[in-house]
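Need C-alpha cells for this chain, all 341 residues.
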Amino acid sequence: MSTRKLNSAESGLDAFVVTDFDDAPMSCGIVRLAPKLLVDGATWLARSQTYQFASFERQVGGASAGINAPADARAEAIAAFIEAFTPDAGSVLLDAGKGLGAGEISALRAADPRPEIAIDRAVELRQAGIVAAAELALGGLDGRTVAIEGFDAAGLQLATALIGRGAHVVAISTATGSAFSAAGFDLGSLTDGFAAHRADLVNELGVDAKPGWAVFGVQADALFVGSKTGALDHNGAPHVKAGVIVPYAPMPVSAKALAMFARAGTVVLPDFIVTGGALAAWPAEGASAPGDLAAAAAELVTSALGEVLGAEQGPLLAGCARAESFLLTWRTELPFGRPIA
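Here are the C-alpha cells for all 341 residues:
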C-alpha cells in the first residue's frame, strides 16, 4: 500500500492517491472530495477494490484518492488535482465518488482504457448486481420486506428496483431520521417526498419519524446498509431482526458486528461481490461486451455470490478467501488486512 501526496503551495491543492499494489499493471478506484478526508479511510477503500477485482478474476489493484477542499474552493481544487494527477492517468483509473459529479473529472477519461459504457452505466449496473444479490440470498423478492439504511438518491433508485420486483420497503433512514411502514411505502410517496424534502423526507411520509439508528431494529427480511464504512457496528448489531444484510457500498459492517451476526445466524453478504455489477461492462481481456448489460451484471454478481452463499464461515469471510485464492495466482503474498471495517 502506498500513498502519493499531491500538495501544492502555489495552487493550494491538498490531495492524495492511495494504491494497494505499487507494481500492479493497473489500479482502479474512486476519488472523493470533502473538507477533510483521511488517508486511513482511503486505504481501506482501496483494499476493498482489490478484493472486488480479485473476486471477478481481474489482475487490477485497488486505488482511492481524496481531495481536501472547502465548498467555496472546490472548482479550483478539482482543476489542480486533475493537472497534478494526469501523469498517473492510464495506470491509475479513478471514478467520481462522494462529493464529486462524474462530469467534474471527465478530463481523466482521455487516458482511461475502459469502454465509455463502463463508466457511463456504472451506477445502473452496480444497482442491478445489488438487487440480483438480494434476490438470490432471499430466494426471490416478491412479497419480501426490506429496509434501506442511508436512503438518498441512490437509495431511491434501489427502492424503485426492489418495489418493481415485488418487494415492500418497510423502513428507510436518512441523515434526519427513520420512518417505518408495516405495509410498505408507496413508491410515489418516496419519489415525491425525496424530490421535495431530501433527507427530511422521513418527516413527510405520514408516520412518526424515529432516530436514524432505529432502522436497524425493523422487522424485515433484508436490511440494505452502506451510508458509510462501519455504519452497522456492534452497537447496532444486537437490534437487527433482518435475516440478511445486503451491503450497497464498501465495508458497511464492522468486524465486531460481523462476529455477532455469525453467532446469531444472520447472513452478511460480501460487499465487494455484491457491488461488482459494473464490471460486466468492462470485460476481461479478450472478452467481448455482452449485449444485455443489466442481465450480465446480475449474472456476474450472482455467479460469484452463489459460490460462497452457503459457506460455513459465512459468505463474507468465504468471499475474502475466494478473492485471496485468485490474488495468489499473480501476487507472491497477500496484502495485510481484509476489507472489513
